[in-house]
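Slide 14.
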Amino acid sequence: MPVKQIALVDCNNFYVSCERLFRPDLAKVPVVVLSNNDGCVVSRSNEAKALGIKMGQPWFECKALAEEHGIVAMSSNYALYADLSNRVMNILGEYSPLREVYSIDECFLDLTGMPKLRDVTYSMRDRVVKWTNIPVCVGVGPTKTLAKLANHVAKKHPRSKGVFNFNDLNEAQQTKLLSQITVDEVWGVGRKLTKRLAAHAIQTAQDLRQAHAPTLRSEFGVVMEKTQRELLGISCIDLQEHAPDKQQIISSRSFGKPVTELVVIQDALSVFVTTATEKLRAQNGHAALVQVNFLTNRFRPEQPQYNPSMTVPLPQPTNDCLVINRWVHHVAELLWRDGYKYKKAGIMLGDISPVTMVQGDWLEPVMASDTKLMMAIDGLNSRFGRGTIKLSGGDLREKWGMRQERKSPDYTSDWAQVPAV
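Slide 15: predicted structure.
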């Protein structure tokens, strides 16, 4: 059997790279992209990293440094990022039919048996840059975990020129490389696990690779044992060409300003219902229960706190946004209390099953769902962009919508905002 060649293609500083695509003046400038409501840093250019800006750092902590060094901050533009991600993934799909889109900026490809693999990986990197101007790095290994580590090497070492194949190393070189990589860089090993592994004298990827397997399994479970096997070159995590159906669908958001009126929070919940039911119908499912929750601002302890949540079963499973929205509004009325400043709200659809599985009820007649209307809504939103058709409790978005004071135009998904020359 040929050695497996699993490639991980990862876009470099993806959100920042997207912002720079139509702003060449930002090419050498320190740039950061902020999270919802311009709260925290979620993407940094290399120049911003060199200045000490940390991932997840609150933006208010960075303002003095930003003024001193001219750091440019941008609000998240998810429509732009999603469109450019789709373009990158379509390019990568031309190199292998076995593909797993792991996240908005990462993709696994099975390149096993491909001739002249080194030339192919460099061609892949060059084509993505040429066609989208999004820089990427390519890491190749016999398993997904080692492909992740190879990608880490490709990013950190300029001599690799953005491409690194772990399979090209002999045993001694592999041992030396893994001994230089700290265990927290291994896929799936987080901060808490790093501390626990340190108690067992496991500091590097090589330490984890040669650790006592039965002890790992008894102390950390089967997932850690799979990670160790992956580091040994034994594939335990297969490519998922199709994402599994979700058992729960959550839609929630922090508000741009505190909400003190029920009608405003109901308007926000209607938008969340639209988003959640669209995802539900996309996987051909229907939900049998719905949960609604509110949150006040826990970072303001001087203010009254109230964080209610209620889950209710639906009379019959449905994916009809109008039906679910009526239940959500009813639950919101039950949960509502005056005198609080609500910072966030959300819904969760649960007990999801395929639409082909319907449990009958002797007492309740089968509810008619307006399938044609739902198909029309999904079709229009697919053609003209998410949110073209949505539920609304009064079009009060300006009272709860996100703060996006630094948002760039939707260069590639809105005709009115396409750059003109």
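Speaker note: The chain has a mean pLDDT of 90.
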